[in-house]
Structures
1.
Amino acid sequence: MKKIVLLFATMLAMSQAHATAPDTVTVIEQPNQVIITETPTGSLVKVIGSKEKEDYSYTYQMQHSGNDTVHTSQSTDWELNLPFMKSSNKEYHWSIVCSGLYFGAGLGTSYDLVNNSFNWGILNFASLNYNTLHGQQFSIGVGYDNKRFSLKRPNCFVMDEVTNIVGIDSYPEGTADRSSVLSVRAIQFPLQFQQFLGKKFHFTLGGTMNWNVYAKCNTHYKVNKTHYDVSYRGIKQNKLTFDVYGALSYNRIGIYCRYSPCDMFKKGYGPEIKNTWMLGVAIAL
Amino acid sequence: MKRITTIMMICMLFASTAMAQVGLNINRLFDGRYKKAAGATEIIVTGVQAREIGLTVYHSLSLTDKNQAELVEGLVVKDGVQAVDKEVEYRNGQLYYGFYTMKKSKRDNRYIFYLNQNLARKSPKNIVTLIYMEGLASPDEIKKLIRK
């Protein structure tokens, strides 16, 4: 405090003396109270009480004339930080969220005999997000994905139960209500980037590693009012596949497009179903 | 009997924290009158959360009613007379901020902080804040705590 008083008093003296060397006006040891006030016409330093005398009083006043050049520095505002005050708008760099429920239909695949395909899943059961707080977000997570491919009639999936090789055959003669579907379920590990465009729009780009934990071919048909439902398990699906995807969202509802370049079956264990395009709706992405 | 003793102890604990600012004029403002008032936010923190920031009692009151500023300022200034150390700034004749170190309560330091953000130069806000704090934290630590 003493240093501040000295400094201020010296500065005042300097401003009055213009270019002359600074002189010490006074030294007050351990003042009790220092009051510095400013008026439009001058400055006042008042010191009350000192180490030696409780009732000590000293006043230094300087009047500014019209020709004076006075340098003053106003105190800055107190930027209050209230502890324990929860702000609903407060944003954090790191977060863990559940996001991205999606449903999509196939736009096409490399395999001609696929009639249509369907895709749904939850992109992130849980993801670790890093938000730059400048409109970008990176995340890594774990989710679930399901892809279904149905064949054009009269083709159906069949599997050799010895070699576990899946092939294509025709339905028996005289069948009705026919469908033959390959279903692949995966635990997916998405890595994605999001760019926010304003408060409500954002686009997403990402890739996933799919751990295809389960695959099944199911062929269904009816002969003379008898329903047949044939399921083949033990299919040799590719355990690891990779997809890339992009999405555009408004208010966390958007459209997504997903491309799967990898073959669904291990080489030699089924038809080449790859280069699949899906398009659909994503919620809470 | 055990239960009654426990309840009595809890009541005494609450009473001791609620009355932490006893003997001060600002105590009038913490009598619960603002608990349900519109435009008022009152926060009372004791225990572990308070200890994490070097305090035993943290009691704040934020008011958005301009008319209350005069009342709060008056009480703060009255308490300020008893302060063992203070740092104040007046703007346009009104108390802009005041940081008062009061007499110790046992081993705890006691502080009163007042800020009238209506008098801010950069971006004035219609908020008057009063904080009463008790704890081992030093004045510098308190300032760090409540200043961005």
2.
Amino acid sequence: MQTDWQPTCSVDLLHLRARVLGQIRGFFAGRGVLEVETPLLGQGIGTDPQLAFFSTRYESPPNQHTLFLQTSPEFAMKRLLAAGSGSIYQICKAFRNGESGRFHNPEFTLLEWYRLDFGLPQLMAEVDDLISLLFADYGLQATQRLSYQDVFRKHTGLDPLVFSYPEYCAYAVAEGLPEAVAICAGDAVLWQDFLFSHKVQPYLGDNALCMVYGYPACQSSLARISPENPRVAERVELFIKGVELGNGYYELTDAAEQARRFNDELSIRQQRNQPAVAKDGRLLAALSAGLPDCSGIAIGLDRLLMLLSASASITDVLSFPIHRA
Amino acid sequence: MAVYSTNEFKSGLKVMLDNDPCAIIENEFVKPGKGQAFNRVKIRNLKTGRVIERTFKSGESLEGADVVDVEMQYLYNDGEFRHFMVQDTFEQYQADSKIVGDASQWLKDQDSCTVTLWNDSPLAVTPANFVELAIVETDPGVRGDTSGGGGKPAKLETGAVVRVPLFVQTGEVIKVDTRTSEYISRVKE
């Protein structure tokens, strides 16, 4: 008889999750942010070469369509914003193929929200309020706000905005990470990911919320480039105890710029022999119709629960992780 | 030999890294929400015993290493090599002191132990977790001496020195945990 029918989390964790969901809904209700739902199964999907998706076939005889499990609700939520929804939030599942580990499960829960007329600083203030509410009993230290450049420099001595191959290599070798040289070669973004993951992130938010803003423009994703400093993007990431919790943007609203970034990502997918995807035409049409000025952020709720319960693995907070699903 | 991808790097898997056979100890998946996925792997070099950390791009792969643990009987020491035999097949192997290493202080003729073979050659020798060995030398315990409680050193027939309680005497056989070099109990002959 199979013994793995049982959940991997405790009953206490089920209660904690329910309580946190209630707190989040209360938080946004109090601020007049509307809860919405968007499809998990969609015809479009993001082009980000770093995100692998699940696809499935929709049978509608005599036709068949490929549908994708969403890697985040971002595109659909932006279509609601363009349609005049006002500020919105959603708590939903997201799916990322191949991501499994102590902090990853291919199916996970996201809290994602968008605030009209918010710049990044206002969004960061709201994040701070939400985290303070959820961690009220945990005695977190004062929230830290650090620029990517400052924090990268502080921990590595290297400037992330000026890529110097010899300096990066010398640093990696000196730090006992010579494999970085072979893995990253001349790819500045890969170097940033490698060194940030290994030498910066583990030290962020030691018993505090740490918000890192001003990501290098080459890691802009769906964020606007800063008008004051074209080398950085209006993007923020959240860390507590070295765990990456969330990722937010002052949202790109320029349809032409968005289409260009999609094209860049598509050509990277092609170079890497990754599955081809179509640009999400409905998102681009929504941006052309006009996405209101807004900032948005997504927070991984399972990791948040890990921190709230001091759990070592995401399986400790999920009812049935992928190997028991 | 099979090839293993980072997803298959489970604890205990034997792979070739930098031309040496290694065992995976730990494998952590590291991936920024928007960024490259890596696997940070803790790995033991089975030749040197050294543990290192190495990062791989997720999806990279390593060749498997033909490493197996075989239960063998320790036969004898010819001065240069120690000889072992697989009891079922009578197949014999020899290993020099570099390979046998610290295990030598626990090896008694006819006792069984684990020999790790790489491409059918001994790579390492691990004694049984518990061995029973005679004491060849220890100070006579002073009757009634309860001070310290730390016991006294005793030299065993294979050369190992362990701490034993004061009441244990030369000539007695004791049971020892080879992983910690700790005295467990006296053994009645």
3.
Amino acid sequence: MTSIATITTPARRRKLVGAGRRQWIGLLYVAPAVALVVVFFIIPLCMTAWMSLHNWPLMGAHSFIGLDNYWAILRDNRFWNALRFTGYYTVVVTIAIFAVAFPLALFIERPRPLTGFYRTSFFMPAVIGFASASLLWSWLLNVDAGLFSPAAFELGLTEKKVNLLATFQPAFWSIIAMVVWKVAGFTMIILMTGLQSIPPDLQEAAMIDGAGPLARFRAITLPLMRRTLALALILSVAGSVLAFDQFYIILRGGPRNQTLTAVYWIFNQSFVSFKLGYGAALSMVLLVILVALSLIQLRLLRQPEGID
Amino acid sequence: MAQARSRKSRIGTQIAEHATGIIASLLFLAPIVWTVLSAFKPAQEARKPPLPPWPTTGFSIENYATLNTFGDGLWLPAQNSIYVSVMTVVLSVIVGVLAGYGFSRFRFPLKNLLFVVILSTIMIPFQSILTPIFLVLTKIGLHNTLTGLVCVYVTLQLPFSIFMMRNAFDAVPREIEEAARMDGANNVTMLLRVMLPLVWPGIVTIALFAFLGAWNEFLAALVLMTDQSKFTLPIMMTALQSGRFGAIDWGAVQAGVTVMMVPCLVLFLLLQRFYIRGLMAGAVK
């Protein structure tokens, strides 16, 4: 794509200069998109910043309170707990996703019979929504009508049906399993594009030089797909930091509010307690974290792919 | 002798590899298959653990009938979901094609700034601006309407749609356009008659992503649609699963999840290469 764009640039410049005022029509073509982004993105974004400086109940007048909401956040232990849990979840789930997706990517990257079938099967859970997947797993994880506890009981692995969602550890790892099932195929495809961009003769040359599979992986595969790895990593991290659906649908933040994520806490403050101003201040904190992550992403992606 | 042994070991490796592949595939497919099969059990059987997953006491669509008795039934939220998804597809395509064409073929003031601003909205999580979106929708009289939800979804899809469409238009050689212009085509006929047939793979890609995005979206629909008659399928099913309509009927949940999954799976299987194309475009960017 990029190469085509660069090749046509000189021709375009000549053409554009010649066409003169007709170029203004371009504004008309992009106007609907710009209008949507302004009304449903830029204005709400500015309003979030503005509202965060107010005491803003759902009903009744709002009043300007300066930075009070932000001072309140500093003392809001439950928000920091939610943020800490979100961070913990993000690290664990990202490692788990990569641990599954990387072997899968290596597996499907080599052409062999049935590769298409394998790739499609691994990817299927990625196209259903997080809400559908969460509903599905909330059934599978149910202690009475579900699959896992009754199956373990029937097989004699447990003495009675264990409620997986009643305590933190099994509940947390159930969510990790569900998310890995749902997302690994997606990460796999991203990693596969990186693997395919490595010239095969490089691997062959290394093989002739006597490098084993592990050495080749470390010396060629990993460095050459640094950019792809960074992209997959960032997509996984950003998605996990914003996690909400699975914790809301399967666990409702429980057991004992131990799995409230940052977005979940903002949702509770804004749409359950209707503290809109405070919710906006929390949103600003989340927003700063995400933008910081995006800037790190741009940093990582800007480094050219290749051997230094 | 040595050759025969190496061939034998190669066959052994192949069998091991395919065994791994098939087991892994089954693990990924199992939850989906399990649900779809269990949904066809009679209501009595569906309440018990799904062992085995397939119906043992006769094939039945009772669960779908039960699902239809909760709240406003199955058809209303399904209709809402279909309306929201189809409208999101139509508007995303129209707005994306127009903007992609504009950004690819014209030079106008602020062009680069506008393009960067639209693309950089993917950096901002929409979760953090939902409250003001709610207030904006109220202000323009679209709160609690499916149309309002469509506007939000189209906006969320825009960075991807515009990026894809601009690339698609960039890839069309200038000569084709110049030839058409010689023949007297104006901007509109140019776009509709000359360009569209050349960029349709890009259009299918953005339509597919728009559909899946709108059909599956949860948080915005949960926050913005407060009236039960406006619930989309994920919201209605979550209400059911949380016991909002009384005792939880897991048979109905299986049926509902099946209804939510099947369109995504069918569309993906039919249009797989367009989906992968979209992912690649995003990844290569």
